Amino acid sequence: MDGVIVDSNPLHRIVWEEYNRRHGIETTEAMQHRMYGKRNDEIVRDFFGDGLSPEEVFEHGAAKEALYREMLGPQLSESLTPGLREFLLRHRDIPAAVATNAEPANVDFVLKGAHLADAFRAVVDGHQVTNPKPHPEVFLRAADQLGVEPNDCVVFEDSYAGVQAGLAAGMKVVGVTSTHSDLPGVSLQISDFNDPALENWLTAP
């Protein structure tokens, strides 16, 4: 979802920096890069240390995401990846799923707020799997819910962890360069869903 459906990683960076500052933590560039594609429990433990209880980890993650939703709300429509709506409409007959490490509240907020919920037949969030990306569990579970074999699936990913997860699931991966300019291992790289190379690749024999 993040970096593919909505170009939200710049805002996540701002929110993590603000949230960490409120707790006396200065956020370095290296910390920001480690955040991409990770689930919140991993990020919180990375930023705040391993001494937190599971409840404290959850509370920090929930509070940060509440601040994120507050800041994203006014700019949600403008933050959607260019060409996404049109792409989903063109391919509405093909089963599609959201498979993300994101918090359930964020997934609900984005899909309902952007009126995209009906475009996806399945949604698997970070709380529905034991192993977050780069483990393939989230993608395999999404494929299972769609009733589609993994090797018949195409994953759209912007993060290194997500690309690794898609490949480990035995799926083809299209890299969206909203977060990283180079995503090793992908079958195709696109800047957004308006990229003409995407439709050519999808329809190639």
Describe the structure.
The chain is mostly helical and 205 residues long. The chain has two domains: 9-75, Putative phosphatase, domain 2 (DNA polymerase, domain 1, Orthogonal Bundle), CATH 1.10.150; 77-203, 3-Layer(aba) Sandwich (Rossmann fold). 47% of the residues lie in helices and 9% in strands. The chain is built from ten helices and five strands. The chain has helices at 9-22, 29-35, 40-48, 54-72, 76-79, 84-90, 104-113, 137-146, 160-168, 196-203, and strands at residues 97-99, 122-124, 154-157, 172-176, 188-190. Strands 3-4-5 form a three-stranded parallel sheet, sandwiched between helices. It has a two-stranded parallel sheet with strand order 1-2. α9 (160-168) links the parallel β3 and β4. The mean pLDDT is 95.
Summarize the structure.
Helix content is 47%, strand content 9%.
Distance between the termini: 28 Å
Task: Indicate the CATH architecture of the largest domain.
Answer: 3-Layer(aba) Sandwich
Low-confidence stretches: none
Named CATH topology of the largest domain: Rossmann fold
General form = globular
Query: Rg from C-alpha positions?
Result: 17 Å
CATH C-level category of the largest domain: Alpha Beta
Strand content: 5-15%
Helix content: 40-55%
CATH superfamily of the largest domain: HAD superfamily/HAD-like
Topology record:
Elements: H1 9-22, H2 29-35, H3 40-48, H4 54-72, H5 76-79, H6 84-90, E1 97-99, H7 104-113, E2 122-124, H8 137-146, E3 154-157, H9 160-168, E4 172-176, E5 188-190, H10 196-203
Parallel strand pairs: 1-2, 3-4, 4-5
